[in-house]
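During the reporting period the student researcher (J.K.) took over the structure-prediction task from the postdoctoral fellow and processed the backlog of single-chain submissions. One of the processed entries is reproduced below for the supervisory committee.
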Amino acid sequence: MNIPHLLRRSACGAALLTTLAAPAVVLAQQQQPDGTVRQPDVSLRHEVEHAIDQGLAWLRTQQRPEGFWSNPDFPALTALVLTAYEGDPSVKDRSLAAQPEGVRHGYDWLLTCAKPDGGIYNKGLTNYNTAICVTALFAAHEARFEPALAAGRRFVAKGQNHLAGDPADGGFGYDPGSGKADLSNTVYALEALYHTRALAAKPEGKPAPEQDLDWQAAVGFLQRCQNLPEYNKEPWASDDAANKGGFVYFPGRSTAGMTDLGNGKQALRSYGTMTYAGLLSFVYADLKHDDPRVTAAYDWLRVNYSVEENPGMGQSGLYYHFNLMAKALTAYGVGDIGLKDGKKANWREEVAKKLIDLQNKDGFWQNNASGRWFEKDPVLATAYSLIALELIDRGL
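J.K. obtained the following structure tokens:
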């Protein structure tokens, strides 16, 4: 894989990159990346932006005097909130100085979590926290953050597993050196490294080895999380109709469990959040739309499309599902999704309406149906929802 080529901004990846911290632009017509042209939905945009305003207003009431949100042990929670503030479509001046005092205070607190090794964390989950914090610092586009960004990027890159012959090779876990890897931590790491890739380039355009990762090994790990025997030689990989192309949590384990295929055979069940994470990761790794791994992932998502649940997991991880869905489909560059029954779904409109319906009257979101993955924490669920709505808002 050609690393300098990866440092170029792809058309798909640029769409997500520019929406991390950019004001909304109202157009007479909206041409979607897939060529779809539609009139802008001004009414829905107003509803979405009202929901965003309410969500951000509620978050202002939740900030602790020290500057953090929810739990100081995990600065990623504060970083997700800050990323949501940076995506606020009502803000025209993108400088940090123009942000509310609470946002500036939040960033100041985040910097106090930076460690001498470059990581940004407090109590464990060092890769996870650092990767999400790096993305939040990047979203601020603040020159004084560059040293912390560069150090954080090096820390994340060094956290990649180099375990030749092991299924975890090329991936990322919660902490470096654990020998473990999963797709959720890997997509956060790739997101941070993708957005900050310019920091890895020396003047001659070649990446500094200590600041970049082995992208080819990362793609290898992604393959080993996908139900696609053509590329995944792990014995559990299946091409049965229900699972082909979808992703699991890590090689050999699906949080969605197993499927009995008959004749003594079983398959690890593909499910929504990890398949969106897989598709998004492929975009970050610059795989093209016609790559069989990409098309298989998108086909699984198309066939299993839902805004009522996290496909394969029900209500568990619902808000993470919406968050990854908005990121992946924005980065992939799709307007309408062609469903298995031949109809098309305007995913932006459907996700937006669903999130508006789920918003509490006080402005927050919370997963009352399932406490898995901390989604009963309204700060986390609200940050997930706001980032999704902000991405959607720019495509309406």
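The committee noted the following: The mean pLDDT is 89.
J.K. will present the remaining backlog at the next meeting.
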